[in-house]
Amino acid sequence: MTSTPTTSSTGAAAPIRRSQRLTDGxxxxxxxxxxxxxxxxxxxxxxxxxxxxxxxAAADADDSITAHVVAERIDRPxxxxxxxxNEITAAIDSVYPxxxxxxxxxxxxxxRMQMAQMLxxxxxxxxxxxxxxMLEYSRTGDPLGDILVSHxxxxxxxxxxxxxxxxQMQRVGLSExxxxxxxxxxxxEPIALAYQAVPVAATEELVLLAxxxxxxxxxxxxxxxxxxxxxxxxxxxxxxxxxxxQRVHARHYAEVSTRLMMETRPEESAHIVISxxxxxxxxxxxxxxxxxxxxxxxxxAIGLVGLCSLLYLVVTVYKVRLTMxxxxxxxxxxxxxxxxxxxxxxYLPMYTILVPLYKEAAIVPRLVxxxxxxxxxxTRLDVKLLCEExxxxxxxxxxxxxxxxxxxxxxxxxxxxxxxxxxxxxxxxLATGAxxxxxxxxxxxxxxxxxxxxxxxxxxxxxxxxxxxxxNHFNQDQNILTAWFANEYSMHFELILPAMGAAEAPxxxxxxxxxxxxxxxxxxxxxxxFNVTEDxxxxxxxxxxxxxxxxxxxxxxEEANSQVPNWIRQRSRWNKGYIQTWLVHMRHxxxxxxxxGVRGFMSFNFTMLTAFVLLLNPIFWGLxxxxxxxxxxxxxxxxxxxxxxxxxALLFIGNFIFVYLSxxxxxxxxxxxxxxxxxxxxxxxxxxxWAAWKGFIQLFTNPFYWEKTTHGLDDGSAHAS
Length: 721
Hints:
Layout: E1 4-5, H1 36-42, E2 44-50, E3 53-58, H2 64-73, E4 78-82, H3 85-95, H4 106-121, H5 127-140, H6 144-150, H7 156-167, H8 181-184, H9 189-195, E5 197-202, E6 207-211, H10 217-227, E7 231-235, H11 238-264, H12 276-295, H13 297-326, H14 337-341, E8 351-357, H15 364-372, E9 381-388, H16 392-401, E10 407-412, H17 420-429, E11 435-438, E12 444-445, H18 449-459, E13 464-473, H19 480-502, E14 514-517, H20 518-523, H21 534-544, E15 548-558, H22 564-585, H23 589-608, H24 610-630, H25 633-638, H26 641-669, H27 675-678, H28 682-701, E16 710-711, E17 719-720
Parallel strand pairs: 3-4, 6-7, 8-9, 8-11, 9-10, 13-15
Antiparallel strand pairs: 1-4, 2-3, 5-6, 11-14, 12-15, 13-14, 16-17
Helix pairs in contact: 1-5, 11-17, 12-13, 13-19, 13-26, 19-26, 21-22, 22-23, 22-28, 24-28
C-alpha cells in the first residue's frame, strides 16, 4: 500500500518519500517513543523521521483526539500517516511482542468504540473526558464505561442505560426493591458477591437475575448450575446491587464478623480476658507473695522491687538494642520512583480499602478526596466505607454524596462488641480485592503507597503476607502534645519496627496502613473483634502461623491528638489492648515458644511488657520523690546493693537514653524541628502512665469498651474513631 499523508500537528502536509513506508520497518530510535498501551488503543506507531518530522502511522489519521495524544508524547513535529489496521498491528507486534499478554479482541474493541460513539454523539461526555478515559484505558485495559463512571464523567445509571442498549437487555431498579429472601439466597453468597448478581424473582421455569454487568458464557454456566434453573439477566445499578447483596446476606456477615474467631480459634480470642489457668497462676502467685510477706516482710518487698527493676532493665536494653541497629540504616523494603513508573497497570490487582467510620460525617468529603488522589486506577479500587448502623448522620452523608461505585457504603448491624475490628471483619467479607489495606478516616497516605505495596509483595519472601507502611502526623507542630506524639511515632516506625522486621521478630502492627494478601488474612481468621488493639494481636498471630511482616518506605500521615483528655482516651485503649494481647498469647507459654522460637518469644514479651512498665512508673517516681523530700529509711531498705545501682542507672542513664532515642527517631525521619521537644519527653511518659492505669482498670470493669477518640481538632471538623 502507498502511505497517504495527512494534516500533521504542525498544520501542514509533507510529501513522503517512497522509501519511508511502515512496511519497511520501524526506525530503532522511534520504537518505544509511544507506550504500548497507547499504540494499541489509538492504533498508532511512529516509524520514521524526515527532515525532523516524526511520521506516525495511524488507522484514523483524521481523529483530533489521536493527533492530540500523539503530539503530547513526542517533543518534535509530528505527521500522522494513514495506514491499514493490519499494517499498524503488525508493526506494534514487532516492537511489543505479546509474550502471552492479553490483546484486545476485535469484539471488545467494537464494543468500546460503540460505547464511546454513543456517549459523545449524545453529548453526555466531552472530547476531553473521552481522551482522559481512553488514555487510562490504554494503561489499564479496564472497560471504558467503568473508567468514565469512576471519574464521574457519567453516572452509573447512564452507563447501565448505554449497556442496556448495546446488549439489548432489560434494566431493573433496585433502590426501592424489597427482596424475597428465599429467592435472593438461591444464588450462594460467594458467587453473588464475586459476580455481582442477585436473583430478584423466580417462576418454576425461570429465574430473573439482576447483574451489574452482562455475564460471559463461563460465568453464566456456573450461575445456572448454582441456581439449578435457567435464568434471564437484568442490568442493574452497581451501587444499588451492592446494597441489595448486603441486605440479603447481612445476618451471615454479622455472625461471621463477631463469632468466627471465638468459635474457630477460641484460645486466640480475647472474649475471655483471663483464662482459668491464668487465674489459678495469679492466685497461687498472690498467695506465695502474701505468705512470704508475712514470714519475711522485708526480703519479700526487696524481691518484688528487684523483679520490677529487672523488668525495667530488660525492656530498656531490648529497645535500645533495636534502635541502635536501625540508626543510620535503611531496613525497609525500598521501592524507587523508576520502578513505580515502569509498573504495568494492566496487571495491577484489585485493591480493597477498608475505612472504619463512626460519627465522622464531617470528614467524609476529605476522605473521598484523599482516596481519589491515590496513584492507582479507580477501576481497580474497592473502597469499603464501614459505618455503624446507629451512626445515621455519617450514613446519610455518604448516601447524599452519590459516590461512584468504587466506593461502597457498608452498614454494620448494631451489636456488641462495637469495635473497629468487628467492623473490619464485616467489610472483609465483602472485599473483592486480592490485596487489602486499612486506612483511618483522617489518614493521608502517600499517593503511591498502594503501588509500592504491590511491588514489595512481588519482591519479599513468599511467607510475607503483610506490608506495614510507616505512620506519622500532619499536625505535629500544633502544640507540645502533638510534637511528643510525632517524636514517639518517629522512634517507633523509623527505628524500632524496621529493626524488628529485619530481625524477623513478631511485629505489633500499626492500626492503619497495613497491607495484606486478602486470602491469607481470611485464613488467619482476620481480626479479633474483642481485642481493642486488634492490629498488634494480628501481627503476633500471623507470626505464630509462620508468616512475616515487612516494612515499606512509605508514610501515612495521621492526625495527632492535640488535647490531653482525648489523647488519654486513645492511649488507654491501646494499653488495654496490649495487655489483652499479652494475656491471650501467654495462655500457653510453651506453645508460643514453640511457634515463635526463643528470640520471637522474648521479643514478644519485651514488646508487650512495655505496658506493664508504664504501670510501674508512677510507683517508682513516687518512691523517688518521697525519698528526696523525706530521706525515709524504709525506701533505702527497699533498694539494697545491686538493686540500688540498677535502679539508679535506669533513673538517670535509662531516661537519658530514651530522650536520646526520641531525638534520634526524629532525626532519622528528618524532622529537625521536633528534636527540642524530645528533651522534655519525661513529662510525656507521665501522661502515658496515667493512660496505662486507666486502661488497666478498665480491663476488669469494661474490657471490650472502645474508647472513641475525637479527631479534626486541628481544623475544626471534629469527628470520632
